[in-house]
Write a structure and sequence with these properties.
By secondary structure, the chain is an all-alpha fold. Helix content is 34%, strand content 0%. The longest helix has 10 residues, at 29-38.
Length: 82
């Protein structure tokens, strides 16, 4: 489990040839764009959108709540889709 969530550690993952088989960025458009532009390992462009959170009953519940509260909770559908 990676504990360091800084931009520097993300850059190191993107350049982890020989250590990282595939990146699947899950986050905002800036993170995804950064991976697509700078990754030296294979990277799947996922697009932004709905992300699901599954919380197992054996996890640290306080940490899970912090993660959920920190997540983007509102998604506004662009007018071109309705």
């Amino acid at each position: 489990m990676i504990q360091d969530t800084t931009h520097q550690s993300a850059n190191e993952l993107m350049e982890g040839v020989g250590y990282i088989d595939l990146l699947i960025p899950r986050g905002g458009k800036n993170l995804i764009s950064c991976c697509i532009e700078h990754a030296k390992v294979p990277c799947i462009q996922t697009g932004t959108g709905i992300c699901h959170i599954y919380v197992d009953d054996e996890v640290d519940q306080d940490m899970a709540v912090k993660i959920i509260e920190n997540a983007d909770q509102v998604f506004v559908m662009p007018k071109k889709f309705y």
